[in-house]
Design a protein that fits this description.
Blueprint lengths: L6 H13 L4 H19 L13
């Protein structure tokens, strides 16, 4: 699902709708998602960058 076309846009849209545009909690949650994606990507588990819209 994270490698399908449009996954980065869907993840960014969901995150914005769920946490809005800011706040400490939102930033921590978005950072956690980005770190998870980095972890998965470093192990070769992802061929795409689904967190591109969050960075």
């Amino acid at each position: 699902m994270l490698e399908e076309d449009g996954a980065a846009d869907r993840l960014a849209g969901w995150s914005l709708g769920h946490w809005g545009n800011g706040g400490d909690r939102a930033q921590r949650c978005l950072s956690t998602i980005c770190r998870a994606v980095d972890f998965w990507g470093a192990r070769g588990w992802l061929a795409a960058e689904p967190a591109a819209g969050l960075r």
